[in-house]
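Structure (tokenized):
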């Protein structure tokens, strides 16, 4: 990561909402598989955009951002129950877009009431968001990784297909995408149910399918990907490997996934670090022991173009 302090503000602000919105589809055409990382604030998005490593002569970077309802809720110290509406979250997205150039995928949870969702779609599209993901659950939203440990209800297929059709009908530009997130494996309804839903959602107009799983082995998403690909070779397939985090990018790419979303790691690592620092200052009586774990003030200032 570059902490030289070189003023790149013109570079960072040189993309329009239209250009940003188009760029996700362009990436999917040019790359077999892209990396997306959760960004809950402008500084986390800047870090994600500037992060680069070189491995075996391959220059690696993240291709875009994930606007997570979970991490947006955590940032506000609110429960992850769809409490934050799209207009509230859009303010944060606009601030992120002020200092970055890469595309964003938006986590819309269930999408809420259909009559409201139509307006959210238009607002997100105008703002420059490239893709909106909606999950096929109803009622009070609970985090998917809790599975059947809490009460969660899956929408019926036709009702969810109608939500997809209405969303597609109300979008303005051809490059904007709606992805359908399938919760069948989360709720232990089996592979066949997940595949049946995938077929129906694609037929209803979904531009991509996100299959979610909370099992750590990754076997069920591997099997889903194989069977889905045999029927839909050209539909983008998305995964969120939070539970099966040991699976390498290359393995998921080989399975047939086109978008890999690292959905909450920036926020989780930030909470962990802040808690450690706060407890250390209390227990040590000073901040000296943790200074080595913190970026220097000078480097922090230099990270933001135009500060120094």
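Design, position by position:
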């Amino acid at each position: 990561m570059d902490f030289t302090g070189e003023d790149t503000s013109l570079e960072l602000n040189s993309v329009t909402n239209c250009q940003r919105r188009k760029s996700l589809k362009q990436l999917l055409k040019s790359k077999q598989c892209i990396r997306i990382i959760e960004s809950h604030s402008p500084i986390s998005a800047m870090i994600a955009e500037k992060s680069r490593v070189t491995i075996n002569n391959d220059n690696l970077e993240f291709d875009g951002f994930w606007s997570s309802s979970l991490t947006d809720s955590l940032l506000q110290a609110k429960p992850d129950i769809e409490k934050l509406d799209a207009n509230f979250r859009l303010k944060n997205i606009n601030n992120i877009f002020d200092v970055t150039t890469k595309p964003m995928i938006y986590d819309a949870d269930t999408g809420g009431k259909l009559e409201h969702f139509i307006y959210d779609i238009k607002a997100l599209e105008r703002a420059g968001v490239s893709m909106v993901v909606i999950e096929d659950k109803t009622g009070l939203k609970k985090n998917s990784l809790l599975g059947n440990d809490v009460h969660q209800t899956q929408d019926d297929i036709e009702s969810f297909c109608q939500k997809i059709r209405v969303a597609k009908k109300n979008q303005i530009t051809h490059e904007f995408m709606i992805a359908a997130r399938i919760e069948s494996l989360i709720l232990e309804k089996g592979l066949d149910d997940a595949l049946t839903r995938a077929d129906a959602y694609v037929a209803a107009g979904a531009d991509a399918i996100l299959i979610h799983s909370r099992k750590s082995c990754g076997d069920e998403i591997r099997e889903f990907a194989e069977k889905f690909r045999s029927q839909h070779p050209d539909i983008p397939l998305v995964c969120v490997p939070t539970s099966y985090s040991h699976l390498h990018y290359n393995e998921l790419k080989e399975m047939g996934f086109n978008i890999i979303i690292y959905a909450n790691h920036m926020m989780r690592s930030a909470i962990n670090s802040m808690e450690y620092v706060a407890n250390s200052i209390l227990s040590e009586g000073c901040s000296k022991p943790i200074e080595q774990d913190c970026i220097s003030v000078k480097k922090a200032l230099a990270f933001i173009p135009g500060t120094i």
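Reviewer-requested clarification: The radius of gyration is 20 Å. The CA atoms of residues 186 and 213 lie 5 Å apart.
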